[in-house]
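debug: dumping io for the single-chain case to check the tokenizer round-trip. Nothing else runs in this session.
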Amino acid sequence: MSAMAAGTENAAPEFRAAGTDISERRRSGVSRGPIVDLAVTSGTIGIDWTADGSGRIGAFTTIAAIAADARIREAYPGIAAAAQGLATPQIRQMATLGGNLAQRSRCWYFRNPQIDCLKKGGSDCPARSGNHLYHAAFDIGPCVAPHPSTMAMALLAYDATVTTDRRSGLSIPDLLGDGSNGAADHLLAPGERIDAIAVPAPVVAERADYKRAIGRTYAEWPLVEVCARAVLSTGTVQRIHIAAGGIAPVPLRLTACEAALQGKPATAEIIAQAARLATSGAKPLPMTGYKLELLVGLVRDVVERIAT
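debug: decoded output
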């Protein structure tokens, strides 16, 4: 979770911060290009707050620091919960927020140095005809590997924006794309690095939560994950955002679920009906249909938890 702006594999220089991702790729031989070690500069580490209560998180801030920060937990509980659930305690102590957003694909075909794929300059996605058990259930692009960034999914739910050393105000879709570019994990230009992430001021009376479904063997990587935030008044949903990860080449907002809940009483029946709409637009691969059941269950569980 460290390549803040990876270029073309085996050729262009790659940035290294904590090194939790790039070190593994270099050990396996997937990444062989020159490394540029990043140094902490003013504004790239720590958590700052503006007068209106909005937060700014430096890209070098560790995932553990985000999870442990009392004000983050109060202002953005969904972000804090996602950070706490990410990977393992050892990884959270080292991994940076910027690196988590810009990490490379976890697909086993991409991680195999003997196999070409779209992300390594190949002509196709071998996972489509191979083992794609942990891949996309929303087939929206040529590459079917799910995006690996838990923090990108949570920040999408919070309408966060990204500042790089060249640009500012990038939404999560601006940073990661819409899944149609199978050759890239993000849309950073070669040599462009993430500096900070801004999160809008907390919404009064908002509740939020995060939950993931994991496999026993690969527990550090979610099969499906969901972050939801909502404002309720007298039992009615006044505002709701739901984002999901592990299901597509990019994190997705579940807009059909949101629309079904907006302005409705937060009853168990209405929440269950809305949760079933989480699969709207899904096109599962032969081996990933099970993810849709997990997605519906997670959405129902998370929304029920924040509605009670």
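debug: round-trip ok. The CA atoms of residues 174 and 187 lie 7 Å apart.
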